[in-house]
Amino acid sequence: GVRAGAGALLSGVAKAALEASLTGLEFAAGIPGSAGGAVFMNAGAYGGQMADVVREVAYLDGDGALRTCAGAGCGFGYRTSVFKAHPDWTVVSVTLGLTPGDPASIRTQMEDLAQRRRDKQPLDLPSAGSTFKRPEGYFAGKLIQDAGLRGAAIGGAQVSEKHAGFIVNRGGATSADVRALVSLVQRTVLERFGVALECEVRFL
Ligand SMILES: Cc1cc2nc3c(=O)[nH]c(=O)nc-3n(C[C@H](O)[C@H](O)[C@H](O)COP(=O)(O)OP(=O)(O)OC[C@H]3O[C@@H](n4cnc5c(N)ncnc54)[C@H](O)[C@@H]3O)c2cc1C
Q: What domains does the chain contain, in order, with CATH numbers?
């Protein structure tokens, strides 16, 4: 297995796996953020998720005691883990179960996914990533687009013209702008299609 500190960039861990000819983290190469955040969120993309590769997580509990949790005991679900229910726990490191693979095909897979991100996502503007979870049987971006909200803006926050599933900061957006736009999108999509969009983004 590969052990990563919680503060390591997930993309850096994926790169290290590639350099060690280990397969399993290709999905993670383009996900921004830390290994700890990825465990907390059960980050995933393109058919992979942290739940598939986490063998063990080391964390500090609310009393500061160092504990470990096997991957199967981490309560992983769609963008959630046991750590969401325990805000006083801090992920310290994660051990990943990866398998030997062919470096050329690992690299090709990572480059392919990176290209798909560049093609589809508004990476030229700041965002928090995909704003909403994928509702059962639908795609959030498609619903938002079909509701006529592509490009809709409140203050500096805007439903991305490139991918309606993202809210971008087109300049000077406040958290209140983002929240108001999230509400507008949720209200409109519920009225038009009867689908309740749930935020993937967390407000702290
Ligand atoms: C352009 C873009 C694309 C994205 N694409 C994806 C994608 O494809 N798939 C995906 O899943 N996400 C995606 N995201 C969202 C985000 O990158 C992931 O959720 C990521 O895993 C969050 O990691 P972070 O380190 O930034 O955590 P933060 O956002 O800083 O934190 C997330 C939560 O985890 C908690 N946390 C963070 N570190 C720890 C720790 N060590 N111990 C305990 N709790 C902790 C925080 O308190 C917070 O509640 C994208 C974001 C952007 C901006």
A: 2-120 (3.30.465.10), 127-193 (3.90.78.10)
Q: How high is the mean pLDDT of the chain?
A: 97
* Cα–Cα distance measured from residue 190 to residue 94, given in angstroms and rounded to the nearest whole number: 39
Q: pLDDT tens digits for 141-188? A: 999 999 999 999 999 999 999 999 999 999 999 999 999 999 999 999
The DSSP H or E segment spanning 38 is helix 35-41
The pLDDT value recorded for residue 168 is 98
- Among 11, 40, 81, 90, residue to substitute to test ligand 1 (most atoms within 8 Å of Cβ): 40
C-alpha of residue 166 to centroid of ligand 1, in Å: 15
If we measure between CA atoms, which residue out of 167, 156, 153 comes closest to residue 121? Answer: 167
State phi, psi for 153 to the nearest 5 degrees. Answer: -135, 145
Indicate if the pLDDT at residue 1 is higher than 90.
Answer: no
- d(C-alpha 22, C-alpha 9), whole Å: 17
10, 13, 27, 41: residue to mutate for ligand 1 pocket, most atoms within 8 A of CB: 41
pLDDT at 100 over 90: yes
Q: Crossing angle of helices 10-19/103-120, nearest 10°?
A: 150
Annotated catalytic, 200?
Answer: yes
